[in-house]
Amino acid sequence: MDKFPGNKGVWGLNLSSLSGIIERMFEAFGFNPDGPDGPEEPQDFPRLSDDEFAEMMNEPLPAEYAHYQACGADPDVFVVQAAEARPGAQTLSLVQAAPIGALSETGRSLALQQLEKLSSHIEAVKAQFTAAIAGPASTTPEAKRDDYSPMEVAAATGCSVYGADRKIAFARDLETRLVAPLAAMHDGRITFLQARELSEATRHITDLHILRDIESGLLKYAHRQDLSKFRRSLTRWIAKKDPAWAATAEAARREVSVTHHANDDGTGELHIHGPLETTALIDLAAAARAQQMSSELGGPVAERKLAALRDWADSVLSGPDAPTRHGLPIRVQLVAQESTVRGEDDAPVEIPGVGMIPASAMRWALADGAEIHALLVNAETGHLKAIDPTGYQVP
């Protein structure tokens, strides 16, 4: 029996309410609740015992849904009925009409899909209530000063006033500019997160004809895209339809930055911002090298990509044309107590001017052949007082 939505002939049912389905089930088994053999004296119908049915299924039978199986009713029909209707108040009743354990694998998957659509529908209704509470955007400083709707929305939703401001901006956008996405949310064809991405990415577009072109192209496949794919599609449509996109992109490409940030937990972050073809080249090179090292290193791809970048840095700083600083090789300096180097304690190790790393990281560096230089350091300030130019390696 085909139980997928789109086949509206499952059991010949195409009803709009749970009570209608149950009534037709009674009729199918010869029980008329309004007839002379009504609810007080229901007609018995043949059924297997629980033990007989469990033996037939070769597995224990949960008591809470034995009656569905015994009378021949397929619990998936409720979920199919939910899928055939527009998301709304009846959706939750239908998907919960039968116990979850009574549904087939297909039925459970379909039920989850309908609940996702219902979530989008509810978010659309919430946005409409939010917009109704907030009203039109204030246009004067005096009106903005007397607008207490963010506090009201914050109290109702349990978020901060700043969070309420964002909710209100999004709700107003749906009610005024993004009419088609709002309808798509009601139908479960676009998620709340997708609609918010669309709102924030197109807020600068004032030409409604351009906006409608973007919406029509974007909404066609949004129902089968996750958020990352939706973002890429959104970027493509804005680039195609927004006449200001090229000038904006040219200006952004000139704002190049490569920054390193040391975190407080012994990790760091390297952030690169520049022309997309350049960042894509770097990423492709790291990924290709990571693939080459997969048999040697194993582990996650991200770790191997980082190892590839580290190897590149090592080759730059140790090759024949390696740059120097004040005539000396450029190295990452680690400052540790002598007792920590000897393995007597695990005191934190410092990268001067950068941050702290655990002692285990320093021991990995020593095992990898790092040189040791004796330093005289002020224990209270960490200032370097003297250095032994002779380097040593751990035997």
Structural overview:
- With 395 residues, the protein is mainly α.
- 52% of the residues lie in helices and 8% in strands.
- It has 19 helices and ten strands.
- It has helices spanning 18-28, 50-57, 66-70, 76-84, 89-95, 105-134, 141-145, 149-157, 161-176, 179-187, 192-201, 208-219, 227-241, 245-253, 276-292, 294-297, 301-318, 338-341, 359-367, and strands at 257-262, 268-273, 324-325, 328-329, 349-351, 355-357, 371-372, 375-377, 384-387, 392-393.
- The protein has a two-stranded antiparallel ribbon with strand order 1-2.
- α11 packs parallel to α13 (227-241) and α15 (276-292) crosses α17 (301-318).
- The longest helix is centred in the first third of the chain and has 30 residues, at 105-134.
- It is elongated, with a radius of gyration of 33 Å.
- The protein starts with 17 loop residues before the first helix and ends with a strand.
- The model is unreliable at 1-48 and 56-67 (pLDDT under 50).
In short:
The protein is mainly alpha-helical.
Main attributes of the structure:
395 residues; mainly alpha; 19 helices; 10 strands
Shape: elongated
Topology as H/E string?
HHHHHHHHHHHHHHEEHHHEEHEEHEEEE
Question: How many alpha or pi helices?
Answer: 19
What profile does the largest beta sheet have?
2 strands, antiparallel
Structural class: mainly alpha
Total number of β-strand segments?
10
Mean pLDDT: 80
Low-confidence stretches: 1-48, 56-67
Distance between the termini: 73 Å
Helix proportion: 40-55%
Going across the major beta sheet, what is the strand order? 1-2
Strand content: 5-15%
Radius of gyration: 33 Å
